[in-house]
What we know:
This protein is α+β, with helices and mostly antiparallel strands. The strands form ten sheets. It has an eight-stranded antiparallel sheet. Strand 5 and strand 6 form a beta hairpin. Helix 6 packs across helix 9 and helix 11 runs parallel beside helix 12. The longest helix has 16 residues.
Amino acid sequence: MNLSKKYxxxxxxxxxxxxxxxxxAAPNVLxxxxxxxxxxxxxxxxxxxxxxxxxxxxNGVKLDLGTNEAYIRLFDKDLVKVSVLKKGxxxxxxxxxxxxxxxxxxPKFKANSSSDTYTLKTKELTVEIxxxxxxxxxxxxxxxxxxxxxVNQDKTSGYENGKPYVFKKTDDNxxxxxxxxxxxxxxxxxxxxxxxxxxxxxxxxxxxKYVYTSIPFFIGLKxxxxxxxxxxxxxxxxxxxxxxxxxxYYFYANGGKLTYYFAYGPEISDVVDRYTDLTGKMEAxxxxxxxxxxxxxxxxxxxxxxxxxxxxxxxxPLDTMHFDIDYxxxxxxxxxxxxxxxxxxxxxxxxxxxxIAINDPAVKQDENYRMYQEGTKNDYWAKNADGSTFIGPVxxxxxxxxDFSKQEVRDWWAKNHDTLFNEGIDGxxxxxxxxxxxxxxxxxxxxxxxxxxxxxEDNKIMHTEYHNLYGHDEADxxxxxxxxxxxETRPFVLTRDMYAGTQRWAALWTGDSESNWExxxxxIPMISNIGLSGVSFxxxxxxxxxxxxxxxxxxxxxxxxxxxxxxxxxxxxxAKSEIKQGQEPWAFGPEVEKIxxxxxxxxxxxxxxxxxxxxxxxxxxxxxxxxxxxxxxHDEKTNDISDQYMFGDSMMLAPVITKGQTSRSVYLPQGVxxxxxxxxxxxxxxxxxxxxxxLGHLPIFVKKDSMIPNRxxxxxxxxxxxxxxxxxxxxxxxxxxxxxEDDGATEDYKQGEYNExxxxxxxxxxxxxxxxxxxxxxxxxxxxxxxxxKLNNAEKPSRIQAGNSKYQEVGSLAETQxxxxxxxxxxxxxxxxxxxxxxxxKEVQIR
Length: 847
């Protein structure tokens, strides 16, 4: 048993009750708000279920369990749905499911029965059902047990006083990942006591149990094989991942039905792909959203304009300024303060700037306010237990809360975004959507009371069930706003809270972090696990939100933050901070400004690579920020690494996340060789290095046989057309890459308007061969004219030619730009640059 971790968690997970009552006039959070105390599972009251009858179904089996019944349904050869219900109840399918049961093509399977088991077998998976007591286990096609119910206590699953639960067998070599957004410094969640209840946890710490987002999906890694379990339950839920014993783990919820999906890998990537088949893939983001974002709660209208101008003057790339709640008229949603409206016009008059506006769900209770009038007239609000409209204080004061469970409310909310879009807003930032309410007492824990409800009088959805779905449905409505008002434009929605499946509409940031080293350290495992939970577009506020960083902390944070999938500097109001320190790159002096520019420049240089990583995320659910175990699950040394990660497929980052540290150890996963990105020095995998990392240096290593597409640095993403694609190649034997290109702005790619070009660089005896092939050519607006093949750690060639065409050697890299069929060899760096025409059809041979 992991006693040290368990001991720490026992201390950490005590529920923290806020002791102050917040009002809109004085919303100064003094403690991390947490929900009421956890509801434990009474082990003495667990059900002992046995199978009393079996009925084969077209896609599985129905089991008579006496007072209960179970359904085991095969959605695919490696995906199974398990439901245990009270007799006569309908099976459950939450709003998180994108691909419904009827949309799956049932795989071929065989069903067999014996005196003590009933078995379903597909090409990849065997589901073995124990009859007495009832229990389920999953085996791979070789007959190895992947996962099984914990039958030792004869009470594997069922309901305890209305709480659905499942116990699973484990052993001490099984590790757990995912669980969406969870605080903590460790990536591996084995030994953790985890809870899910979307909570406005301002300035949370590593020990805060409940934060903003609930994604009840996790991945188990056992014997180097991966599986996933999605506990599709929207109530407050709990996960005891080997906290009590190394023999079992269990999960349960405060209410709802027992429904979970089991997905088999064996690779982690297979599990994530299958899970996002079920809950939905993200859409391709607009390219501008991959640039840097700058934000602060409390920017004046003039500051927004001046900060943007300063970025341009200092030639630090930036795409987007955010408008926090100050832009509204008295914090009324879908309104404008005239000064900020004018600031937006000035911002948009400058080349390359995009704007994102915050939007909160709370609608001010004001009889003269259009939104409140319409919502009241049409019965659009969440209700108290007695049927009256729930009113609670948030930023605008006493407010009503839209009932997003209703389609007509989501449509109404979407329609009202014209107020923002008509002024030039490009993206929407959904905040406070846990939903947060500024009351903390013995009945309300910073949200609506548990006996509030949504829906209609004859079809109520209790707050206990709907709470974790509130932001999910708001994201749906916000995404729809783009379809109504900006139908030719890719949506960008940023949200503070999610449920499973929200990734198909929105990006996520990890809420109100704090400017300290703990939060910098915590950002890496948090983003890693969120990525494994199907949310690729995610980031943490660079520099921290609450309080203020010093120069060293900000420098280290921007080094990492420039490589978050969602990269935004955002910080708290000066009114809430003792130190009135800005968090713009130049706010900490020339040294930190130089460091900031270096890494922001590098992000923009790598945009072709990053954009392609996001495209792959839309296809397979693959995270952009990948924990090492995602690619190297057969190397057990990667299972617990929390402070290194892969930025896409090829680049490994090992940031400094400790105050005063100027060197660090770096593990190079086995199975591949590695190159130091900065020095070109090469290393074999499977070893640990100690590397120097003075302030301003982020250790980066690149997998050998990788090709990283990049380009010239721009001040914003659409400043210059992509005419020269640099193929930064780290060749061992064979490096290949398929480069995707579209317009980066519209949804024309969905109609096939894109290009795909495959590149291959291969070492053949004493020569190196480069070839390309246009796989898809439907994007007519491409401006690509040349490829610059950059070969690292290369020898000077005697000649380069394609067919009969010989390449000319030139004296500088600059001379190869815009002039194809040339090459330059940098003898000091041992780097060869070859300028190849984009339409070259012949193999380029380097001898």
